[in-house]
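Entry 14. Structure prediction run on the chain below.
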Amino acid sequence: MRRVADDSAQTHSEPPEAAANSLRSVAMRQRALRPSGAEAAETTWPKGRRSIVTVAAIVVFLVAGCSGQRPELVTETGQGVGTSTDGADTAPDVALLQTDCATAIGGRPWPVIIEATPEPPMPCVELAGHHRIEFVNNTPDPVGFGLAGLTVDIEPGASFVTEPAATFLQPGLTELNATPHPVSGLWVADPSENTLAGQTVAWNSIGPVLVGATPAEITAALGGATVAAAAESCSITGIVGDPYSPVFTFSNGTLAVIRVSTPGQVTPSEVGVGSSEGDVLAAYGQQIESQTSPDGDPANNILILVPADPADQQYRLVFEVSSGVVTGLRAGLTDLTIAGGDCPG
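Output returned:
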């Protein structure tokens, strides 16, 4: 069952200092951020029953609600989530769309698109504590709302990227009473809902999830959590309803790449997200090959762990490094893992 934040988190007239500092330091392409004298419009409410859908270019799934029962997977065609910001197509890793919430997984900022349409937005976006949110104003009007005791104003065509959600929001749902256009609320999942918490990452696995397995085999191995079927030659998905899930890339029906961005999930040598580049080199030494990042950013590079056992040469474990700090891990089949783990094309 998803938990709603306790009553003390329902309305905030003054945020904790850390939360205020976090939001004041957010990266924005264009912003107007001012203190709010009134109480922030933030409330919590329980989520209703969910159902899984598959949407256009982004893989999506149905999940059950608080009953814990998961309905059969249903494939439908619906409206995809727009991800173009300031002319750049920067897609999130994957969306798990539900009847009441969209569950984001992966390490990229999750876009909350504000549209001037008669159709209401998704009521909420379910996030892990490490997720950043990018509010994108696609309307002709300035849009404002309260968030953690501050008032956020976003000009037309501009966007606003927050710090990690857990630095300024309590677990549970924060509803944003935006004007003049509605904005999806933010549901922060408790870290205890991480299906693979405490599981280690190797070059061909994370805990019981093995490269080469089918979605049905992974679902069975997880013992209750669901991974949707991979019907295409290449598809990207994750654990349904779990924003802490790794991103799974399936090729021809079997798992090819595992991408991890959740802090606390580490290798057997206890190296993971948040470790330094030096930690990786100290742990693995001569087994590490360094390359420039496929994204072309000079601040980024990848460290590739090459298996010592010839029987494992088809696999690689990649540490994604930005400014000397590990921001993600990729494990799986050599070529696709080194290339980034996305589907070709």
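The first strand starts at residue 27 and ends at 28.
Filed with the rest of this week's runs.
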